[in-house]
Design brief:
Elements: H1 3-15, E1 31-40, E2 45-46, E3 51-58, E4 61-69, E5 75-82, E6 100-107, E7 114-121, E8 126-133, E9 145-148
Parallel strand pairs: 1-8, 7-9
Antiparallel strand pairs: 1-2, 1-5, 3-4, 3-6, 6-7
Length: 155
């Protein structure tokens, strides 16, 4: 990818940043959580100070939901994210989705940006999303790494 395109993407992400996060419902059944663990060298070293941005893409538009900076262990806070009610999965005739999909962008000094798309979030579930960054020196100058997590879950 073109470096100018990458910078444009970063600027757009920051422009639409929204600090407010949704309130948890009383039953807790309308939200799931993601905690991101950022490492380098195939999980050997935690990356502290990485900027982790959670976003949602709908109809070609990206909306930033929340962001955080990794701690010394490479962990973020738990991101509270809207997800369909668990009851959607209780009948075979259901045509509603049983999960929501989100994207995560991770940037850190000295590393190639990592973007994970279509990460499933299930109501009432805390998921750990492990992201392993590649040092810029090992990337041969290539742009961000993009991973599509989409799968046709057959529940």
């Amino acid at each position: 990818m073109d470096k100018e395109l990458i910078e444009k993407y970063k600027r757009e992400m920051l422009k639409v940043y929204a600090a407010a996060k949704p309130e948890k419902s009383e039953s807790g059944s309308e939200y799931g959580e993601i905690e991101v663990i950022v490492t380098a060298l195939k999980g050997l070293y935690p990356v502290s100070g990485a900027v982790v941005t959670v976003f949602k893409e709908e109809n070609g538009n990206q909306t930033v939901i929340d962001s955080d900076i990794t701690d010394l262990s490479g962990n973020t806070k738990k991101f509270l994210l809207p997800a369909p009610n668990k009851e959607n999965s209780q009948t075979a005739e259901n045509t509603k989705s049983v999960y929501s999909e989100y994207g995560i962008s991770v940037t850190a000094n000295g590393f190639v940006e990592q973007i994970n798309l279509n990460i499933p979030v299930f109501s009432g579930v805390t998921s750990l999303q492990r992201i392993d960054l590649v040092p810029i020196s090992a990337s041969n100058g290539k742009g961000p790494t993009i991973t599509n997590e989409h799968s046709d879950y057959n529940l």
